[in-house]
Amino acid sequence: MKKRVLITGGAGFIGSHLSDLFLSKGYQVIVMDNLLTGKMKNIAHNLKNKDFKFIKHNVTEYIDLKGDLFAILHFASPASPADYLKYPIPTLKVGALGTHNALGLALAKRCKFLLASTSEVYGDPLVNPQPEKYWGNVNPIGPRGVYDEAKRFAEAITMAYNRYHSVDTKIVRIFNTYGPRMRGNDGRAIPNFLSQALKDRPITMYGSGKQTRSFCYASDLIAGIYKLLLSKEHEPVNIGNPNEMSLLKLAKLIIRLTGSESKIVYEVLPVDDPKVRCPDIGKAKRLLKWHPKVQIEEGLENTIPSFK
Ligand code: UDP
Question: What is the pLDDT of residue 85?
Answer without folding.
Answer: 94
